[in-house]
Design brief:
about 90 residues; alpha+beta; 3 strands; elongated
Length: about 90
């Protein structure tokens, strides 16, 4: 999936993305915030290092466990919450 994103970024040099990291709710909130930021930064590093995307085209944000998309009471729900989302940034 990241290779497809890298190819998309290569085709559209004006495309800028925000990479948002999210964990489940297991662990302390401060640790989850750090983990979510690290998750987003890891995706950015991959796109920059592997696909040559200019780092300035990629913003990162970590949201901790503040934006779940599923119930954290089950393993299946927690697995869905451990994710990275990509959002288009407005063109300058």
């Amino acid at each position: 999936m990241l290779d497809e994103i890298g190819a998309l970024l290569a085709r559209d040099a004006a495309l800028r993305l925000e990479i948002q990291g999210h964990p489940d709710n297991v662990g302390a909130p401060t640790a989850n915030l750090t983990l979510s930021q690290q998750r987003a930064e890891a995706v950015k590093k991959y796109l920059v290092d592997t696909h040559g995307v200019a780092a300035a085209r990629l913003a990162t944000s970590g949201f901790g466990d503040t934006r779940p998309i599923a119930d954290n009471a089950t393993e299946a729900g927690r697995a869905k919450n451990r994710r990275v989302e990509l959002h288009r940034l407005h063109r300058k």
